[in-house]
Specification:
By secondary structure, the protein is mostly helical. The protein has one domain. Helix content is about 60%, strand content about 0%. A two-stranded antiparallel sheet has the order 1-2. The protein is globular and about 50 Å long. Mean pLDDT is about 75; it is low at about 1-10, about 305-345 and about 355-360. Keywords: Membrane, Transmembrane, Transmembrane helix. Belongs to the EamA transporter family. It is found in: Membrane.
């Protein structure tokens, strides 16, 4: 654990690469996430909703634990666990549970509404959490993209609200919070450790919950159900999160989140190809409009940190210049003895530099304590005798 008095700042992860590489990693994560709803639909054909969520988390924890053990990952610092807890509650438990329960009463195309509004929600939370100030062009493109995706998804589903809408919109907040905290932690921890430790943290809850769910809910093992469960566990829950957090750390949370505007369109394409759902005439125009909004957000950038916004956690120490940090062992300024009636003010002695034990000696005057307020020696205890 980092010493608070140390002059050495905590090591920050060098994200490296170019903005293009970060964008490619984030886009790869979006492609992995676009198959989450179709895969969940497959998993629900053989497993119950609670079994799908809990077994998904347990399988992902097994994969993450293997990565943590193989990489000999160190235990996170104490200040990182609050963010890891937010990631665990948001993307390990909250979003999978709420969306899985919603998919029992709604189809995949209607569930794409939540993905359409998720980038905007993530950008807002990122601006509040990190103090970034995206440009007006960024916000205009983000709002326009969210509006296009939402209108397109509602149009494809007939525009009628379903019982799962409340669950879908509730999942927006928890997922966006998990994305923001995960992207922030990915600057000081590798992305695979962020999601890995989040999965390990909730294992005491997910493991017994999976055992109980499998006993209470019926299970029908088929190729579709097992394949869907494996995808959401290994890819959506872990591998996709690894590249997603890495990309967010490279290009910024707000900027990376806008790549998810393309996720609903991809989800509808997968739904048509894998689930046989019909795609309307508005699919291609909506896809082109979303891609234009994504291009605008990527060119406008995500903005800089707002002046005066405090930097918390290990980032605060890393931002302090080395010369400005307090160093230990700095000699104190010379003290001046108070004016005595016997004469003018006399500078008090300063502590001499340490000498080797064989040559270090003290004079009788140095062995006495400092003078008191009336020029007398202060009686602070037994006097030390000078060495003979």
């Amino acid at each position: 654990m980092t010493d608070k008095n140390s002059a050495i700042a905590p090591t920050r992860i060098a994200v490296g690469g170019t903005a293009l590489a970060g964008t490619a990693l984030a886009a790869l994560g979006v492609a992995a996430f676009s198959l989450t709803f179709p895969s969940t639909h497959w998993a629900l054909t053989g497993f119950g909703a609670w079994s799908t969520v809990t077994v998904r988390a347990v399988l992902a924890t097994a994969v993450a634990g293997a990565f943590l053990a193989a990489g000999r990952a160190r235990f996170p610092e104490r200040e990182h666990w609050a963010g890891i807890a937010v990631v665990a509650c948001g993307v390990v438990i909250g979003f999978p549970l709420l969306t899985t329960l919603a998919l029992r009463s709604t189809d995949t195309s209607h569930a794409a509404v939540v993905v359409g509004a998720l980038p905007l929600c993530t950008a807002v939370l990122a601006a509040l959490r990190t103090g970034a100030r995206p440009s007006r062009t960024f916000w205009a493109a983000a709002v326009a993209g969210a509006a296009v995706v939402t209108a397109f998804s509602l149009g494809e589903s007939g525009g009628a609200p379903t019982a799962g809408d409340g669950l879908l919109f509730a999942s927006l907040l928890v997922c966006a919070a998990g994305y923001v905290e995960g992207g922030r932690l990915a600057a000081v921890l590798p992305g695979w450790q962020v999601i890995g430790w989040a999965l390990v943290a909730v294992l005491p809850l997910t493991l017994p919950a999976a055992a109980v769910s499998l006993c209470l809910e019926p299970v029908r093992l088929t190729g579709e159900s097992v394949g869907g469960l494996v995808w959401v566990a290994v890819v959506s829950q872990f591998l996709g999160m690894v590249v997603w957090y890495r990309g967010m750390a490279a290009i910024g949370v707000a900027r990376a989140s806008q790549l998810q505007l393309a996720q609903p369109v991809l989800t509808l394409v997968w739904s048509a190809a894998l689930l046989g759902e019909h795609l309307g005439r508005a699919t291609l125009p909506a896809a082109l409009a979303v891609l234009v909004c994504v291009a605008v957000t990527q060119r406008s950038g995500s903005g800089a940190r707002r002046p005066g916004t405090p930097v918390t956690g290990s980032s605060a120490t890393a931002c302090v210049p080395r010369r400005a940090r307090p160093e230990t062992g700095t000699p104190a300024p010379a003290r001046t003895a108070p004016l005595s009636p016997a004469g003018p003010r006399v500078p008090a002695r300063t502590a001499p530099a340490e000498a080797p034990a064989s040559t270090q000696t003290k004079t009788p005057s140095e062995a006495l304590p400092p003078a008191g307020p009336h020029g007398r020696v202060a009686d602070d205890g037994p006097r030390r005798r000078a060495p003979r």
